[in-house]
Amino acid sequence: MFTPDAVAAMQAHAIAAFPEESCGMVVDNAYRPLVNTHPDPTRHFHIADADYLTHADGLQAVVHSHPMGPLHPSGDDMRGQLATGVPWAIIPTDGEAAGAPIVWGAGVPVPPLIGRPFVHGVTDCYALCRDYYRDTLGIAVADQARDDEWWDHGENLYLDGFQERGFVTADRAMMRPDDVVLMAIRSKVPNHAGIVMPNGLILHHLQKRLSRREPLGPWMRYVTHVLRHGSVAP
């Protein structure tokens, strides 16, 4: 996504700004460091409207750092990316070194469906379902901003979100390939999703594991809902 010089500049800015979040933009393949104007810069960032407008025409990406983590976007990060319509990147740093950019959003190359590492909000179970529907079935499913562990904070994000995106409830006894199964794993609400595959398999992605196909049977005890996209129902 970025040239080596741009990545090096992002990382240097993140280290220099520590313990505050750095922020900047990629314009014409070059990183442009900007001032973080948020009143709580150790936890959030804000780019002044004047700075944003100066670079808006050639904007390729928005970049900010996460001092001491987390190694994934927050719900606010995801909402910001969706609002701008360009890729966003996070630079993890401990103030002494900085890691590789964590990049997501429009135009970012999509990894293979099987064998991808888990990054909440970037390559997680919801992202796997979205990518499967787009790449395999040609059905676009909108992204959904989400904080980690939303299921422990009174939200029912997956059930509400899938239904808002054109999915309808299907009869569990009539489950078929391409259906989405929602599961509640150590949760009172569904917090995991997978795709039903032929031959009794499921395609899904759990934390701390690579995405994979495996037998669906052992996971059926966690299934709370079977969903089917309206364009392929009944």
Our measurement of the CA-to-CA distance between the termini, rounded to an integer number of angstroms, reads 40 Å
Describe the largest sheet.
6 strands, antiparallel
Gyration radius (Cα, Å) is 19 Å
Using DSSP, what is the number of strands? 11
Estimated share of beta-strand residues: 15-25%
Percent of residues in helices comes to: 10-25%
DSSP summary: helix tally? 5
Instruction: Report strand order across the widest sheet.
Output: 6-11-7-8-9-10
Mean pLDDT comes to: 96
Write down the secondary-structure element order. HEEHEHEEHHEEEEEE
- Coarse morphology: elongated
- Structural category: alpha+beta
Looking at this protein, list some descriptive labels.
11 strands, 24% strand, 234 residues, 6-stranded antiparallel sheet, alpha+beta, 5-stranded mixed sheet, single chain
Q: Layout of helices and strands, plus pairs?
A:
Blueprint: H1 4-17, E1 23-27, E2 30-34, H2 49-55, E3 59-67, H3 75-84, E4 88-93, E5 102-104, H4 125-137, H5 157-164, E6 167-169, E7 180-183, E8 192-197, E9 201-204, E10 212-215, E11 223-229
